[in-house]
What we know:
The protein has 349 residues and is an alpha/beta fold.
Amino acid sequence: MDDNKISNLTGKQTLTVVEAMQKIDRNTCGILFLVDDEEKLTGCITDGDIRRFLLSGGNMSAPALDAANKHPKVAKNETEAKALFHKKNFIIIPIVDEENKVIAFYGGEGRELRKRNALNIPVVINAGGKGTRLDPFTRVLPKPLIPVGDLPIIEHIMKEYQSYSCDEFHIIVNYKKDLMKAYFADNEEHYNITWYDEEKPLGTGGGLTLLRGKLDGTFFFANCDALLTANYESMLSFHKENGNVITMICAYRTLDIPYGVVDMGTNGAITGMREKPSVSFLTNTGIYIVEPQVIDDMQDGVSIGFPDIVAMEKNKGRKVAAYPVSENDWMDMGQLPELEKMRKKLYGE
């Protein structure tokens, strides 16, 4: 096996959770195998393991081994690896030698991708904003119709939901709404769309009141500038199992500060110094899973941001929660520098 492929799928057991997550993002396989100083296998960690660790109170600076499966399935040869791989829903099977060192991986090359399970719940998209972060393009087109490759932003988003059989779309519009409706009226895909016109701007959350009485079950609610490629089925299961009225989908971001950071105490005393540190934080993607009772708690015609609605529900004693995903699963199309990155990610060019 190519040494680079083994290197991409393995990491030292001394890695932190955030470092393991970054390496998982780079290898795009959703898993990392941890090894000791002698290159012997000591565990494996998936993006799901990291999510469960964080949800249970763990933090990003903890050792990756704390969140890992310390007894991963292994094989001694390719025949054994194939048998293990196809027996259960494994991502990758490591092949190890007599000293438990990884010499190869089997990932079911040539298999068809497993079909996504149908979720069949409505999708509400807030597409009424002016898209000021994409000026001057939005002087001509509404933000949802800004193209990324062959398709506009909103259509990329809708197709991702359709891959889970979420075909019922409710779209809230305001700015340049006639262009939005004209585009979809002429679209050969013939999406199942119900339109809701804001008479005045109602913020990122207020437009939901236009759907009062229209939805009788759980729905996805998304801004029209965020594309998520994470596992929607896992998100929905988490939401329902925990009895949440709102689940906010959040992405872990890591920023490398290109300067030395100095901590200062009384009278200018230097209390600490860190050279070009990395900072990790959880950020709102603008994508939510919501129960219809949230709409019942809102006032008609009032402009409000959806994060304020989350706070309102929390203050009422309702269950709201964050579901963390990898930053590699989130694409923010609301900024000009991100559009080209997204085009390359979607089209591989």
